[in-house]
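for the record, two folds in this file. i put them one after another cuz i was lazy. first one right below, seq on top, C-alpha cells after. the second one comes after a little note so u can tell where it starts
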Amino acid sequence: MSSTQPRRRGGNRYRRPRKDPVRILAFEALRAVDERDAYANLVLPPLLRKAREKDPAHGGLDARDAALVTELVYGTLRRQGTYDAIIAECVDRPLREVDPPVLDVLSLGAHQLLGTRIPQHAAVSATVELARVVLGDGRAKFVNAVLRRITADDLDGWLDRIAPPYDKDPEEHLALRHAHPRWVVSALWDALGTGRGGITALLEADNERPEVTLVARPGRATTEELTTEDTAPGRWSPYAVRLAEGGEPGALDAVREGRAGVQDEGSQLVALALANAPLEGADARWLDSCAGPGGKAALLGALAAERGAALLASEKQPHRARLVARALEGNPGPWAVVAADGTRPAWAPGSFDRVLVDVPCTGLGALRRRPEARWRRRPEDVAGFAPLQRGLLRQALESARVGGVVAYVTCSPHLAETRAVVDDVLRGLEKEGTTAAEPVDARPLLPGVPELGEGPDIQLWPHLHGTDAMYLALLRRTA
C-alpha cells in the first residue's frame, strides 16, 4: 500500500498537528506582548476582530471562542510571575535558558491547568498540539513532559510549595500567591497602609477582570440613552454606566458617534473634582496639559461647554494629539488641541482658571486592565518618571492664574509618584518665593464616595471603589 504520508519508525503513520485557532490566537497575542512590548488590551481586540470575520470553517471564532482567547491571554499574563516560578520547578535548566516562545506555550498550558476549569487531559493535549504547530514536534515533547509535571498538583498545592509562610516573609508570600512582583506588593502596601480593606483584598482586586465603564458626555449624551438590559448605573459618577460582562460598547449609537466613550469611573471622578472645585472670579479658560489619548479632555470639554468656558488640550506627541482631537470632535463648546510639551508651555503663565495635569507614571493603578505592566515595570522606573512629573506639576501651577485650581493626577498609588511629587514641588516653590500654592481638600467634591482617606488629597482603590487606583491632589495657586 502506497501513501504520501510520512511514517515513523515501527510503522506508525505521522499525524499532522491539529490547528486550534483559539490557542494559536492566544499564543500570537502573547508573542506580541513579549516581542514588541505591546499591551494586550491594544493587541488583542484587532486580532479577535480579524478572526471573527473569517468563515468558521476556515478558523473563524464565535463569541464563546473569543471569550476563551481573552481569558487565556489575560489570565496567563496576570499570573505570569507565579507560573514562571512553578514552571521553574518542573524544568531541568534555568528558566532564562528556555526559549521565550516555548515559555509562552508552557505558560498558556499552566494557566489552563491551574487557573481554569478545563480538564487536565484536555489542557495538556491542546497545549501539546499548539506546541507542535508553533514550535515543532521536538520541542512539543519537552512541553508535554513539563506539563505532566505541573499536573502533579493544583494551584493551591503549588503555592504551598513555592511561597514562603506569611509569618516568615509576608511580602514574598503575597507576591507569589497573588501574582505581583515583590517590589509592587511593597509599594502598594506602603500606599494603602493599615486598614482600608487590607493589602490582600487589593491584590485580589488587581487580579479580577475590570468592568467596562462608559461615560455619557454632558450635553452630548445621557446615561438613560446608554441604559439597556446589559448595563447598570455607575457607582459614583453621575455620567457613568457599567456594561455587563461581554457587553460591546460599539453596539451603542452614542459610543459610535463619539457622544459617549469608554472611561474608567476613577478617571471620570478626578475630572469632575477639578470641574467642581470652588473658584472665585473668572471661570472661562480650562487647560488639560497632558491630554492624550483624550478621555478626560472629552469630559472636561463637555463640562466646560456647559459653563461657556473654553478648553485647551495639550499633548506632546503629535499622534496622541490627533487622538485627543478625535475625542473632542463634536464638542459643543470652544476647544483647541495643540501638540506641545507641558514642561515648555506654548501659552503665557497665569492663563487658565482650571488646569488638569495627568502625568505619565508607572501605571500601577491600572494593573487590572494591563496585567503585563506589573511584570514589565521595574523599581527604577519610578525614579525615571520623577523629574518629568515634578516639571509638569510646576508648569501647571505657573499656567494657572492666581486663585486658579490645578488637579495633579496619576494612575499610580505609589507614594513616590503621588504625595512625594506634590510635597517636593510645593516646598521648592516656597523656597523660591515666586509662584505659591496651597492644597485644597478634594474629598467634599466627590459626595457619596466612601473611604477617601484623611485628605486633603484622594486615593481611589480597585477593592474599595471598583475603579483604577487614581490619585488626585487639588492645589490652588495663591501667588
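(here's the note) second protein begins now
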Amino acid sequence: MTDVAVANPIHDFLAAAVAENPVVVFMKGVPEQPRCGFSAIVVQILDHLGVDFVGVDVLQDDALRSGVKSFSDWPTIPQLYVKGEFVGGSDIVREMFESGELKSLFAEQGLLH
C-alpha cells in the first residue's frame, strides 16, 4: 500500500469537515478538554471572540493526526480553518488575535455574534 492510498480517505474526511463547518480546529483533545497547551490557546482565543467552531480531535487516530499535516502542508497541530481556508497554527492564531487581524477576519466572514 502506498501512502497516497492510505491518505485519500483521511483527506476526504478532512476536506468534508472543512467544507461543512465555517470554523474548524484540528486539535489535540476536544474544545471542552484540550490535551495540549497549544490547542488550549486556540480554543481560548476562539471562545474569547465568541466564534462558533468545531474541534476535531486528531489524537483519536494516527492516520488522522498525520493526514491533517499533509492535508495542509503544515507540520504542527492545532490547525485553524475558516471558511475552507487554512489560517495557521497556534503561534499564527495568537499573533493574529493580538494584532486584531483575527477578529477582523471573523467579522469579514460574518462569523462574529
